Structure prediction request, 278 residues.
Amino acid sequence: MDCTFGGGGHSKAILGLLSAKGKLVAFDQDDDARKNLPDDERIIFVQQNFRHLQRFLRLHNITAVDGILADLGVSSHQFDEAARGFSTRYNSEMDMRMDQRQTLTAFEVLNSYTEQRLHKIFEQYGEVTNAKTIAKKIVEVRSSSSLKTIDGFKNAIREIVKGNPNKYFAQVFQALRIEVNDELGALKEMLQQIPSLLKPGGRVAIITFHSLEDRLVKNFFRRGSFDEPEENPFINTEAVNELKVITKKPILPNDEEMKRNPRSRSAKLRVAEKVMMS
Ligand SMILES: C[S@@+](CC[C@H](N)C(=O)[O-])C[C@H]1O[C@@H](n2cnc3c(N)ncnc32)[C@H](O)[C@@H]1O
Prediction:
């Protein structure tokens, strides 16, 4: 299973290792990903959110798989396509939807969420230093301007930008993107389905790009739950955790990879294995 087909780079590498009888199920919620599908009858493409993994696998009469890969976040294609609204480099509408069938856009978030909710999103998902101030500013300016475009939005909040503007806007955009696509909610739902989908001895590999995602993956692989141990010292998940951690520390890109692919800079790969039944 490749949960995040995107440009198909990982899927093509997996296909190169599969036998003639093997099957690869590739999910991507973005219809644009379909353009990258190889002409190979071993691949089954599902244009759905990976939060519905189990449901759509069942539709294809698949109840268990040997391996699951997810390479989270936005693809280079989505990021570099101005009209998708993911990048601070271009001026287009405040969209940021990975799945263009969904109704919630960044424009909706900016123009309809309460100040409190915006504050939380910028604080938690973007670690924006002045999250309260930016939320207040958005609510103040949106009554007179609709914050429809990226340039319009950036100009409207310019006077409250703190520190390096590129870094600041990157954090603000990250927060909006996580909210629009419910990225953490989808990741949690997907992780919870993994133990029952993997065959014993099967492996799950997840690549994350920021600490919020990485923490969820790390805790789930270690304990079968999302709780931080210090938050709930009474949980005893040893008995219920069906996964065994393979990578005690995450695997990081080396210098050569970072040079070749600067977007790999913040990537962390973690791997776990479904334990064998005794
Ligand atoms: C980083 S890219 C993957 C790139 C891919 N590994 C490759 O080799 O080209 C992430 C892809 O996952 C998709 N994606 C992200 N979250 C998703 C979700 N919850 N459900 C389905 N697809 C998702 C995005 O649309 C995007 O195309």
The chain has a mean pLDDT of 94. The pocket of S-adenosylmethionine is lined by residues 4, 6-10, 27-30, 33, 49-51, 71, 73, 75, 98, 186 (CB under 6 Å). The two ends are 26 Å apart (CA to CA). The first strand starts at residue 24 and ends at 27.
